[in-house]
Amino acid sequence: METVTATGAIKAAEAHGAHLAPLGLADGDAVEALLDLSFGRERRQRTAYRLRDGVAAEPVASCAAFDEHGQLVGSLQSWPLALVGEDGAQTPLWLVGPIAVHPDRRSEGIGRTMLRRALAAIDETGIPAALIGDPEYYEPFGFTADATGRWELPGPFERRRLLARLDEGQTLPETGRLVPRR
User: Fold this and answer.
1) What does the DSSP 8-state code read for residue 6?
2) 159-182 pLDDT per residue, tens
3) For the domain 3-180, what is the CATH code?
4) Other C-beta atoms lying within 10 Å of the C-beta of residue 3
5) Neighbour tally for 28: CB within 10 Å
6) Is residue 155 a contact partner of residue 50, using CB atoms and an 8 Å limit?
7) How far is residue 120 from each of residues 64, 83, 115, 164, measured CA to CA in Å?
8) Percentage of the chain lying above the pLDDT 90 cut
9) Cα–Cα dist 100/122, whole Å
């Protein structure tokens, strides 16, 4: 059971002492430093960053994790995305990630707890989620490459790592190009 404190933080029992809070409560420089530590400074050259270009992370579907001393130990951001068909029709999606956890706190469930929180918020919108990530990690959360086989991205990517999560009965166009949703 999650409980909300007066500061808006959520104590996540499954995250071994980490407390989740809105991403906006985290210092922006600390988030960037954690992302650099987790993914390297060259991370900004990755295709996923092109999908985030010019749009802000969605606060409701993003969060930060803090340790018992108030130090940032995790962050997750979700972004508005669209799949644009050949006819120009846009299908809204959410791009989940990056998910970063401090190396000293990995394997404690912090990333999984942040992801569950973000997906709960995304599920409320009725808009499917997509991400670029390891299928082995994300399949238990309902992500697969079944719907993404013919999608295009604005840069290089490993096709097996382009994943989508659909509600039962939901479908997505077979083809299209992913772009930031403005």
Assistant:
1) T
2) 999 999 998 889 999 999 999 999
3) 3.40.630.30
4) 9
5) 9
6) yes
7) 15, 22, 8, 15
8) 88
9) 19
Q: Which residue bears the tokens 């086989």?
A: 149
Q: Are 65 and 77 in contact (CB under 8 A)?
A: no
AA letter at 113: T
- E-strand spans in 14-143? 19-22, 63-66, 72-84, 90-101, 129-132
Written as six digits, the tokens of 107 are: 């394997």
pTM here is: 0.89
Distance, in Å, from the CA atom of 163 to the CA atom of 166, rounded to the nearest integer, reads: 10
- Domains of the chain, by residue range, sit at 3-180
Long-range contact set of residues 170-173: C-beta below 8 Å, sequence gap at least 24: 170/128, 171/147, 172/83, 172/91, 172/93, 172/128, 172/147, 173/83, 173/85, 173/89, 173/91
Amino acid, res. 33: A
Q: Other C-beta atoms within 10 Å of 54: how many?
A: 8
Where do we find the tokens 């997906």?
A: 119
